[in-house]
Design brief:
Order of helices and strands: EEEHEEEHEHEEEEEEEEEHEE
CATH superfamily: Acetoacetate decarboxylase-like
Number of strands: 18
Number of domains: 1
Largest sheet: 7 strands, mixed, barrel
CATH architecture: Beta Barrel
Shape: globular
Distance between the termini: 37 Å
């Protein structure tokens, strides 16, 4: 047992689950990690066709916009090993439910009452164990590739390689630059929606740790011109070269990734 288990945040009942890459325990515990989050507002008509399930609707933000999150993680110590991850997600609500009147505020509601969540459309990771768990427990659209992550001082850079490029030179996306002025802030608890077989799952991600909420500064994403499906979706969203609305980053992320509950 690691020293982290002396921390009440991680003293949590665990349920075993057998994946194709071996046994894991749920919730998955993440002890020592860094994250970098860029939020974009894009046109609704660009985001809606990219959802990988009909069980959710795109959440409508002011000005008829959709919210897209580009989330990057360096998981240094977790219950499923060390790996990096990049998620592209669209803010959503379960299909047929009422749209939140104040969507930005709804993102900060308690997880027990929140309906506004995120639906992941791409989720590359760097290990087979993390890939199998994401697909088999939650139905996440994971694939394995090389992902770099560098967050030092006020500068950030990350590159997601194209796993289908035989020479290893193809790039899906590169994010680079320095965040602008900001303030200290907490991590945001996350509600995730995903489809596993025929079911819509509602997954709670309980987080802890401080970070910096910033203006975008010089942070920009450069999307590769290759044929990989993730690059194509990012181009369709219009992320390439666009200034994010907000940035959040931290070297102090800890979290519990719970099993998903079926939504009636």
């Amino acid at each position: 047992m690691s020293n982290w288990h002396q921390d009440p945040f991680f003293q949590y009942p665990l349920t075993p689950f057998e994946t194709s890459e071996g046994k894991i325990d749920l919730p998955i515990l993440y002890y020592d990690n860094s994250n970098f989050l860029a939020l974009y507002e894009v046109e609704l008509e660009k985001a809606a066709p990219l959802l990988n399930t009909k069980l959710v609707d795109v959440a409508k933000f002011p000005g008829g916009k959709a919210l897209v999150a580009l989330a990057l993680y360096e998981y240094r110590e977790t219950a499923v090993g060390t790996y990096n991850e990049v998620g592209v997600a669209i803010a959503t609500v379960p299909a047929g439910t009422a749209q939140p009147k104040h969507p930005w505020l709804a993102m900060y509601q308690s997880l027990d009452t929140r309906m506004l969540g995120l639906t992941v459309i791409d989720l590359p990771v760097t290990t087979a164990a993390a890939c199998a768990a994401g697909k088999e427990v939650w139905g996440f659209p994971k694939f394995i590739t090389d992902i770099s992550f560098s967050l030092s001082g006020s500068h950030f850079s990350s590159t997601v390689k194209d796993p289908k490029d035989p020479d290893g030179e193809g790039v899906i996306i590169t994010i680079n630059g320095s965040p602008g002025p900001g303030v200290s802030g907490p991590q945001l608890d996350i509600l995730l929606y995903s489809q596993l077989n025929e079911d819509l799952l509602r997954t709670l991600v309980v987080t802890r740790g401080g970070g910096r909420l910033c203006l975008p500064g010089s942070i920009r994403a450069s999307v590769g011109a290759g044929s990989h499906a993730m690059a194509r979706r990012l181009r369709e969203l219009g992320i390439h070269g666009r200034k994010p609305k907000l940035i959040f980053y931290s070297h102090g992320l800890q979290l519990r990734l719970n099993a998903g509950a079926k939504v009636a």
